[in-house]
Amino acid sequence: MKPISALLSLLPFLANATPLLPRQGPQAQITSITASGPGCAPGTFSTSIDPTSAIATFGFDAYQSAIGAGVPGSDREKHCELFLTVRFPLGCTTASVTTTSHGFAVLGAGTSGVVATGYNISPGNLSNGNPPSKTLSGAQWADGDVYQKEDQNVARVQINGEGQRDVQFVVRSRVFVTGSGSNPEGLVTTDDIVVAITGLQTC
Question: What range does the record give for the signal peptide (predicted)?
């Protein structure tokens, strides 16, 4: 064992040494986002990208479907498409993509709401492009309540050159209300949708 004096003489060297950092794996970066559709008309939505560049948030002011007296039939269903440009590293990469929708619903007797999502990526492929819809019905919604729909996807992307690194990821979101009886009433909103890309690994 070295004497203490010898160990102390090493301290200045150790203090100036470059620390060993964990090796980072492949990274993805969301570079741009936008939305389009009757549920997200210009001026009725906002977007933000987290400083990590791996989480995108869409907020909506008027994304809602409704049924009831005096409500136009065209309001029973609304949709919005979300467009994300994601920059992937070269080579073959897989990534976990979690999409979470939050909203509110108030539904009278005999009325139900449906929250549906679908996905597409180009170039690449997804493990769960058309997940099951979320149906809202029953006494829970009579006085109004919040809902959450979460979808999990695994994206597999093969990038062969620098000019192919920007990948288009699309979320197709839809909400609609159906009802039976003489005067069905109901409302379903989508307040925000968050897309998170994590867990990148080489294929």
Answer: 1-17
d(CA 130, CA 11): 59
pTM: 0.85
Please report, for the chain, the start and end positions of each structural domain, with discontinuous segments joined by +: 24-202
CA atoms within 13 A on the CB side of 190: 35
Interval 159-188: pLDDT, tens: 999 999 999 999 999 999 998 877 889 999
* CA 189/CA 192 separation, integer angstroms: 9
Interior angle at CA 125, CA 89 and CA 190, nearest 5: 100
Cα–Cα distance for residue pair 116/101, rounded to 1 Å = 10
Q: What is the CATH number of domain 24-202?
A: 2.60.120
